[in-house]
Amino acid sequence: MQLIARFFLIFSVTTALSLCADMEADDPEITVLYDVPYLGSDRDETLDAYLPSEEFARPLPAVVLIHGGGWTGGNKRAAREINIGTTLASNGFAVFSISYKLNRRLEGGGLEVVWPQNIYDCKSAVRYLRANADEYGIDQTRIATMGGSAGGHLAMLVGTTSHVDELNQGGLYTDQSNEVSCVLNFYGRHELSERRRYFAGATEKETDERVRLASPDTWLGERTPPILVVQGTKDRSVPPRIARALVRRLEDLNIEHDYIEIDGAGHSFHLRPKQMDLRPAVLAFLKKHLGAPKKITRDN
């Protein structure tokens, strides 16, 4: 973990001052479009689009934001998602906070499992942005996925499986690519052996195969885009050992990544947990891998 500390010390000295001017989270010029039916009119799941002000030149880099909730709950308009959407949009990134098909809890403690529809929906969101890039003023070559907890898992799975035929057969806009330029994973699991029930099939063998397919760890390799991993040391839902194991895998496979471990942070925080302001690091990562949004200069 010494490398992590060195990275953050170097980052804070060389970068934070230059980014502070760009970190206003509340921007009245942001346009928010609510409940866009990106999966069609027959689906209840929609997206909210946070679009930067006109001072930023189009086309814009874009982020697909995937909420958490254990693949069973959560909300695209929760406080965390609003914080991330408004912060990134005020800095020139178009953010699309999506809802997606969730598992349903049954009476008696059972679970109606929807896999693989949840990953199909997330991939459909990426493809939707490409199919409608001109409408939203975004650059279809500069798209990231981002999420927390279950959303972090799904963000990683989208990022690692653009080439995996088994996971590219469903969903909408399949004439479009679902490849992304980078992934931001906040306390999400990369391996699902401890969460089998959320991906259960009719038999143990089918469940084994679903867990294999749904685990980003299965697909990590030379085609994996850069990943930012953010983890709190006091997280009881996704313990830090999981993020550390992911980082070791990324190191072993020589996959570009950054890791931020926040001492004392629990589960489910946004860009400004009390222990640390994450905005400089997140903005720096996005600017590195999506390109910095450009402001329009006007003659006086």
What does this entry show, briefly?
This protein has helices spanning 2-14, 16-19, 79-90, 117-131, 133-136, 150-160, 204-214, 216-219, 240-252, 279-290; strands at residues 31-36, 47-51, 60-66, 94-98, 104-105, 111-112, 138-148, 182-186, 227-232, 257-262. With 300 residues, it is an alpha/beta fold.
Describe the structure.
- It is a single chain.
- The protein is an alpha/beta fold.
- It has one domain: Alpha/Beta hydrolase fold, catalytic domain (Rossmann fold).
- The chain contains ten helices and ten strands.
- The strands form two sheets. It has an eight-stranded mixed sheet, sandwiched between helices. It has a two-stranded antiparallel sheet with strand order 5-6.
- Helix 9 (240-252) links the parallel strand 9 (227-232) and strand 10.
- The longest helix is centred in the middle third of the chain and has 15 residues, at 117-131.
- The protein is globular.
- 45% of the residues are buried.
- Mean pLDDT is 91; it is low at 1-25.
